[in-house]
Design brief:
This protein is mainly β. The protein is built from one helix and ten strands.
């Protein structure tokens, strides 16, 4: 529900401002991750799958506003059960140079990452604190349609803790941890 509300607000509040833009075309873009180049440290058997989206509106003068989300699923780790890391919805801002051939860069932030990571035999707890994304993209316009390619780096910060029994005493251990992954995104855009 939150993702739909944020997406609706971004596009419905800013689309009327197109008239204030320059003579360059405005753009609506949608990206999805095609691959990831991330590895898990110390795990040669781990399989990584990434999913998510980025939707962005770019005004005629180059400023772009949008929403993004990225999820990394990790399986095959012999030390723990399969788990996923999700940035949750993030708001991003970027700038686009060019008209037919474009360069785009930007940053995004979020505050609600989630994870289903689980460590057996201990009282383990993981709580998301923040999420960040940065991106660099290229685009080529074929009239009113654009073909897009982007490199995106996403990270999610979590507070992790677990309770252990040590010689009959309960001890809590906690730490902050940041998980980061990179994706290559493909997309389509529409100019108007």
């Amino acid at each position: 529900m939150y993702k739909k509300l944020v997406t609706f607000l971004v596009f419905s509040l800013y689309v009327p401002l197109v008239a204030l833009g320059a003579d360059d075309p405005s753009r609506a873009r949608l990206y999805i991750p095609a691959s990831t180049s991330t590895t898990v440290s110390g795990c040669t058997t781990c399989e990584l799958k990434v999913s998510g989206y980025a939707a962005r509106y770019i005004f005629g003068f180059g400023l772009g506003l949008g929403v993004a989300s990225s999820k990394l699923a990790i399986s095959g780790d012999p030390k723990s059960a399969d788990y996923s890391l999700d940035t949750g919805p993030m708001m991003d801002i970027g700038y686009t140079f060019g008209s037919d051939f474009t360069f785009t860069f930007g940053l995004g932030v979020g505050s609600s990452p989630t994870s289903d990571k689980f460590i057996p035999d201990v009282n383990y707890k993981i709580e998301g604190t923040s999420a960040l994304t940065s991106f660099f993209g290229l685009g080529y316009s074929f009239g009113s349609i654009e073909i897009l390619l982007a490199l995106r780096s996403s990270s999610a910060s979590f507070d992790e803790s677990y309770m252990m029994s040590f010689f009959g005493r309960e001890m809590m251990t906690s730490w902050a941890n940041e998980y980061a992954w990179q994706t290559t995104d493909i997309g389509i855009g529409f100019t108007f």
